[in-house]
Automatic annotation (TrEMBL):
Molecular-function annotations in GO: ATP binding
Organism: Candidatus Methanoperedens nitratireducens
Highest taxon of source: Archaea
SUPFAM superfamilies on file: P-loop containing nucleoside triphosphate hydrolases
Name the record gives this protein: Archaeal ATPase
Start and end residues of each ATPase domain: 7-205
InterPro entries assigned: ATPase_dom, P-loop_NTPase
Taxonomic path: Archaea, Methanobacteriati, Methanobacteriota, Stenosarchaea group, Methanomicrobia
Amino acid sequence: MIMLRKFIDRDEERAYLNREYLSESFSFSVIYGRRRVGKTELISNFLKDKPNIYFLADKRGTKPNLFRLRKKAAEFFNDFEPNLETFDEVFEYIKTKWNKRQKLVIVIDEFSYLAQMDDSIPSVFQLIVDEILKAGLFHLILCGSSVSMMEKSTLSHSSPLYGRRTGQMQVKPILFRHIRKFFPEQPLHEIVNIYGAAGGVPFYLLFFDPNKSYYENLQNVFFAKEAVMYAEGEFLLREELKEPATFMNILYAISKGAARPGEIASKS
């Protein structure tokens, strides 16, 4: 399978990030959107010409992530890894070390993993914003794929981080008019077919081989049991929902021909 890698569209999103970066005071962006929509690629493109500490959180727990971030920060400053035991100590270390007259971008990608595993994380980052970063030349970006968790932990009125951000952005699938740039040689009807199957999700579009027919691509990308997309629906439901079984049963009923609410209920 050919997987083409392209960065297309996102002009408005890049312009927003650059405005935040070029502001003369501390900036704090919350970036969220469904998985595979291109958030990390957007951030990577934005970071190309800027000093940055990029950290991708994982699900191993608070302490392992803390120690990995500590190591990342020390590597950025070409320093020995300091003995720091809390996130606020790590950010205090970064603040102390950064003495240049331009902004340092600090990205915590998949912040939702941290917040999901530790309820205190939003409060910890409130302290980091208010008492450590706010007076310095920093652009903090918290990014996450679990839309519900990002809204709960960073955007909702109940979050300790509410009111701290200087901007937020939900990264959405790209528009139909930009799909042609992925497949410049394809006729319009083929692009309509591809869009019908993959929507505007860049990760999905990258799996379509322009040298094969639409139906060959469907077989290779969606219906082959070893293909990434074969289990994508179930994976997304498990990522976003605590109890996905009910929704899986509803989708199964629809796949078997149920169309009316009563039919769906009786078959699920």
